[in-house]
Specification:
By secondary structure, the protein is an alpha/beta fold. The protein folds into 2 domains: 124 residues, Rossmann fold, CATH 3.40.50; 84 residues, Response regulator (Rossmann fold, 3-Layer(aba) Sandwich), CATH 3.40.50.2300. Helix content is 52%, strand content 14%. It contains 10 helices and 6 strands, in the order βαβαβαβαβαβααααα. The chain has a 6-stranded parallel sheet, with helices on both faces. It is globular and about 50 Å long. It starts with a strand and ends in a 9-residue tail after the last helix.
C-alpha cells in the first residue's frame, strides 16, 4: 500500500485529493495538511511514501517544503500539483527533488496513476508542462548538432511523441503497439542516452537537435 500525504491550503482541494486517494486501489491516505511546514512535520511523524503537494501556500511554499522533505526523508517522493503550469515552477520543483509536476485539472485517475509512477521512482510531468519545458529550452539556447546515437526508427517515433507530452498509453494507441512495448522502447532510450527519466529524454533530444519546439 502506497502511503500518501496531501498538502494544500484550500480545504476543498484537500478534500478532493483525499477522496481520490481513498478510492484508488493501492493507495492509503496518511493525512491532509494545510501548509508546507505541516507537510514537513507530518513526514517526520508518519511513514509517508508520496506527498501530493501544492505550490502556493502561506509561509513555506510547496517547493521549499519539497526540498526539506527530500533532505530529511530521502525515501519520500513528492508530486507537485498546482493550478499554475508556468515553467519557472517546473524547474524549481524538479530542482527541489520533486518526482512529478501536474496541474490541478488532471483527472483523478491520472493523479492516482502519477502517484504510483512517482512511488516507483519515475518522473511524471503534465503534457502542458512538458511543452513549457521545450519552449524554455528553445528560448535559452540554440540546439547543438545531433549526437550520433543509434536509434531505431521506432525509437525516433516514440521520442517525437514523448516531446508532445504523450503518455505510454497514448503513444501505444498512436503507433498501434502494446503499452508494454512502448515501455520497452522508453527503457531503451533511457539506456542509450544515459538519462534517468522520460523528461530528460526530451531535454536531451532538443538540446542535441533531435526534435524542435514544433514537435512538442
Amino acid at each position: 500500500m502506497i502511503r500518501v500525504l496531501v498538502a494544500d491550503d484550500q480545504e476543498l482541494i484537500r478534500s478532493a485529493l483525499a477522496t481520490v486517494v481513498d478510492v484508488s486501489e493501492g493507495l492509503s491516505l496518511v493525512a491532509t495538511v494545510p501548509s508546507g511546514e505541516d507537510a514537513v512535520r507530518a513526514c517526520l511523524e508518519h511513514m509517508v511514501d508520496v506527498v501530493l503537494m501544492d505550490i502556493r501556500m502561506g509561509g513555506m511554499d510547496g517547493i521549499e517544503a519539497s526540498a526539506e522533505i527530500r533532505r530529511l526523508r530521502p525515501a519520500t517522493r513528492v508530486l507537485i500539483l498546482t493550478t499554475f503550469d508556468l515553467d519557472e515552477y517546473l524547474f524549481r520543483a524538479l530542482g527541489a527533488g520533486a518526482g512529478g509536476f501536474l496541474t490541478k485539472d488532471t483527472p483523478g485517475a491520472e493523479v492516482a496513476e502519477a502517484v504510483r509512477e512517482v512511488y516507483a521512482g519515475r518522473s511524471v510531468v503534465s503534457p502542458r508542462a512538458t511543452r513549457a519545458l521545450i519552449q524554455r529550452i528553445a528560448g535559452a539556447t540554440p540546439p547543438a548538432d545531433g549526437q550520433q546515437v543509434d536509434f531505431t526508427e521506432r525509437e525516433r517515433e516514440v521520442l517525437t511523441l514523448l516531446a508532445r507530452g504523450s503518455s505510454n498509453a497514448e503513444i501505444g494507441r498512436e503507433l498501434f503497439v502494446a503499452e508494454s512495448t512502448v515501455k520497452t522502447h522508453v527503457g531503451s532510450l533511457l539506456r542509450k542516452l544515459g538519462v534517468r527519466d522520460r523528461l530528460h529524454i526530451v531535454v536531451w533530444a532538443y538540446q542535441h537537435g533531435m526534435i524542435t519546439p514544433s514537435d512538442g
